[in-house]
Amino acid sequence: MSKKGYSKEEREQVGRDLLEVGLEMLSQRGLKGTTLQDILQAVGISKPFFYGNYYSSLAQLVLHIINYENMLLLREVQESVRNQDMSLEEMIHHFLDMVTHSRQYHFFVMTQEEEMWVYKHLSPEEFETYQQGQEQFYEQVLALWHIPQEKCRPKELGNLILSVVLTYNSAARSLPFFPEELERTAQATALSRYLASLVDTDK
Q1: Does the bond joining 176 to the residue before it have cis omega, within 30 degrees of 0?
Q2: Chunked mean pLDDT (size 10), the chain, 203 residues
Q3: How far apart are CA 60 and CA 36, in angstroms?
Q4: Which of 52, 100, 126, 196 is most buried by a 10 A CB count?
Q5: How far is CA 87 from each of CA 9, 22, 52, 92, 137, rounded to the nearest angstrom?
Q6: Distance in angstroms (rounded) separating the CA atoms of residues 46 and 188
Q7: Whose CA is closest to 26, among 95, 135, 105?
Q8: How far is Cα 109 from Cα 124, in angstroms, rounded to an integer?
Q9: CA neighbor of 165 nearest in space, from 181, 145, 185, 143
Q10: With contact defined as beta carbons under 8 Å apart, do 37 and 47 qualify?
């Protein structure tokens, strides 16, 4: 149950809690297993308080959770870049490992079904803002890996990474893949090697 009065600091903390709790629930349960009420109950606020102070829908909250998650992923990339013991190919492979095994790393990577659900619940303006945010995220990842955009555009990087994720997530449920061999599949390794070959050696 929400309190009757919140200070500015408390409201800001609730905003952070919505993102952190929401990300954790979505990463472990997915959209099908997570309701807005689940998140609000865990945070300790009511729906009227949520709608009156934060977001207009679950879909809008999900977008902000994804933006928050992108910030966390960028921190992970920055940490791997600072790790002198990792080659660029290893850094990229680590990133691909995080997004393909998102539940293990407590990240939320939407399935195609979840993407369609969110898309249907967004206005055209909200969807455009989401797309722009995703493009900026991949642009920052390219910059951290010192890969020039003339060799790989942000949208291209996004599609390449998501193709690996989609293949991995769908393979276990479809023929003719062999699920027990997925961990050794060459796709992530090949993409890591390809992207590392594009590095700007002057950096």
Answers
A1: yes
A2: 75 97 97 96 96 94 96 96 90 94 94 90 92 96 96 96 84 60 71 93 61
A3: 11
A4: 100
A5: 42, 33, 48, 9, 22
A6: 43
A7: 105
A8: 22
A9: 185
A10: yes
